[in-house]
Design goal:
about 110 residues, alpha/beta, globular
């Protein structure tokens, strides 16, 4: 008899607007993802140690460390994590910079 294993994927949402972070987490949670949120890049780096997300959805414009700087830190320490930048503040240059920094999607 073959036993099938299913994995619940985990997503860390890095967003400084609390309502938006809760809404994204709720949507993903209803679709079977395990989610956590962080309101700064620094808090997200701490959260990654325990949570070990499969993917990170992050804002570009964060207080303190920028989304691009955060992406560089994650790429250096955990290159297997998929990084998805989602922002309302974007421009063509931000999209290019995000992809060059290792974003899986923008």
């Amino acid at each position: 008899m073959t036993q099938m294993y299913s994995k619940t994927y985990s997503v860390l949402i890095v967003e400084d607007e609390a309502t938006l972070a809760r809404n994204v987490a709720g949507f993903l949670g209803r679709h079977g993802f395990d989610t956590r949120t962080a309101d700064t890049a620094e808090a997200a780096l701490r959260e990654m140690v325990e949570f070990k997300p499969d993917a990170i959805v992050l804002d570009f414009d964060l207080p303190g460390m920028s989304g691009l700087d955060f992406m560089s830190r994650v790429r250096a320490t955990a290159p297997q994590i998929k990084l998805i930048m989602a922002t309302g503040q974007g421009s063509e240059q931000v999209a290019v910079d995000a992809m060059k920094s290792g974003a899986y999607d923008y």
